[in-house]
């Protein structure tokens, strides 16, 4: 017991030096999570029982064995094997790298992610995570996707971004990269979830894209500094991709594809699964065609997403019309001609019977209010 008190005193001194409760909380979570044999299930049981990782680490063996799933052997391991000094050094490294982080028992932790069966106790990120990112769709698929598949992913991501939906993916080659690119081309938001730590970009050629994503959303990882992109990390990572999203779109996937792992997590998390059909002769269509057979929503356009997810559609409409009370009757009349798809200004002028100079003035006013947005080719979309 005397040895444990010494460790507690050392921890208190470190906290006083950093003067930051959040860093203390993170260090305690890391120390608990890194104990061999704990696992996410037991870790969450401990957090639910004690309220914090720090209290769990300081609990007596009798208190620990009262926790469901914690036997005497595990309780002894928690007391004897915890390495809080090592955890402190890891947090100092995180702090020095400028990484930001979410902690499971804090209010800013992503709402959608908190609802999955096995949320990460902490997750590091670079960039900005915004409230609007709770309105998200994941797009995943083959690393060796066809040109048609990559093009579909990029266009779908752009359409989602134009409608104010955040695009989530894993920054892998192929479909993932196309999805991130599409969202950014449309000046929307995108999140990339790593299967390595944030200081190890994988694939290596993704460095430029990672830098751009930081400016258009954020990079996220549950892995500690220096974690290499080992194979087993990616299926585990996939639960975060689906967990951050309201639905998962699979575009081209072979029968044993990582994208199908993400779809599997989505099913466990009660997320909607969408799959783009393809030729049965194409290897990378076998996985998506199988998903459709198993009940996934067949997807050919963004409208399929909004039909299957009325809540997401409602959030998009609410975002578009939040300033509706400030509109004139003429502005409201013009907006009645907008749908999910962009509309050409010439077509809008014909449909509304509005002179072009007047229409352009109205559209400018609506754009300044954040209700519509101009795209290339004199097209407009609800913003």
Plain-language structure description:
The strands form 2 sheets. This protein has a 9-stranded mixed β-sheet with strand order 1-2-6-5-4-3-7-8-9, sandwiched between helices. Strands 10-12-11 form a 3-stranded antiparallel β-sheet. It is α/β, with parallel strands linked by helices and 383 residues long. The longest helix is centred in the N-terminal third of the chain and has 17 residues, at 2-18. It is globular, with a radius of gyration of 24 Å. Residues 1-8 have low confidence and may be disordered. Helix 2 packs across helix 7, helix 10 (175-185) packs across helix 11 and helix 15 (302-308) crosses helix 16 (310-320). It has 3 domains: 2-95, 5' to 3' exonuclease, C-terminal subdomain (DNA polymerase, domain 1), CATH 1.10.150.20; 126-313, Rossmann fold (3-Layer(aba) Sandwich); 321-382, Arc Repressor Mutant, subunit A (Orthogonal Bundle). Helices cover 50% and strands 13% of the residues. It contains 19 helices and 12 strands.
What proportion of the residues is helical, as a percent range?
Answer: 40-55%
Binned strand content: 5-15%
Summarize the main sheet. Answer: 9 strands, mixed
Arrangement of strands in the largest sheet? 1-2-6-5-4-3-7-8-9
Predict the CATH topology of the largest domain: Rossmann fold
Terminal CA distance: 62 Å
In total, the number of domains comes to: 3
Number of helices: 19
Shape: globular
Mean pLDDT: 91
Q: Structural class of the helices, strands and pairings?
A: alpha/beta
Radius of gyration, rounded?
24 Å
């Amino acid at each position: 017991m005397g040895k444990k008190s010494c460790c507690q005193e050392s921890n208190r001194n470190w906290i006083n030096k950093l003067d930051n409760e959040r860093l203390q909380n993170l260090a305690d979570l890391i120390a608990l999570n890194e104990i061999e044999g704990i696992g996410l299930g037991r870790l969450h049981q401990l957090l639910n029982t004690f309220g914090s990782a720090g209290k769990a680490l300081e609990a007596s063996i009798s208190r620990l064995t009262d926790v469901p799933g914690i036997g005497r052997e595990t309780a002894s391991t928690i007391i004897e094997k915890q390495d809080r000094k090592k955890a402190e050094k890891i947090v100092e490294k995180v702090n020095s790298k400028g990484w930001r982080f979410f902690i499971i028992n804090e209010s800013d932790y992503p709402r959608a992610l908190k609802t999955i069966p096995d949320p990460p106790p902490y997750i590091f990120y670079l960039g900005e995570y915004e409230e609007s990112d709770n309105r998200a769709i994941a797009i995943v698929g083959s690393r060796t996707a066809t040109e048609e598949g990559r093009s579909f992913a990029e266009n779908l991501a752009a359409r989602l971004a134009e409608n104010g939906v955040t695009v989530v993916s894993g920054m892998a080659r192929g479909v993932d990269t196309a999805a991130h690119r599409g969202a950014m081309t449309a000046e929307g938001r995108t999140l990339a979830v790593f299967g390595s730590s944030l200081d190890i970009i994988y694939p290596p050629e993704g460095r430029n894209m990672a830098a751009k994503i930081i400016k258009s959303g954020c990079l996220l990882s549950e892995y500690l500094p220096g974690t290499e992109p080992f194979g087993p990390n990616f299926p585990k990572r996939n639960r975060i991709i689906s967990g951050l999203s309201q639905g998962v779109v699979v575009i081209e996937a072979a029968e044993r594809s990582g994208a199908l792992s993400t779809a599997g997590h989505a099913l466990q998390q009660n997320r909607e699964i969408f799959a783009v059909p393809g030729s049965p002769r194409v290897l990378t269509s076998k996985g998506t065609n199988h998903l459709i057979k198993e009940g996934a929503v067949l997807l050919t356009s963004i409208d399929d997403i909004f039909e299957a997810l009325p809540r997401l559609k409602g959030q998009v409409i609410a975002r578009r019309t939040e300033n509706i009370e400030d509109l004139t009757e003429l502005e409201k009349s013009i907006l009645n001609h907008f749908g999910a798809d962009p509309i050409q200004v010439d077509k809008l002028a014909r449909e509304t019977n509005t002179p072009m100079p007047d229409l352009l003035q109205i559209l400018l006013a609506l754009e300044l209010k954040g209700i519509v947005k101009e795209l290339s080719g004199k097209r407009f979309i609800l913003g």
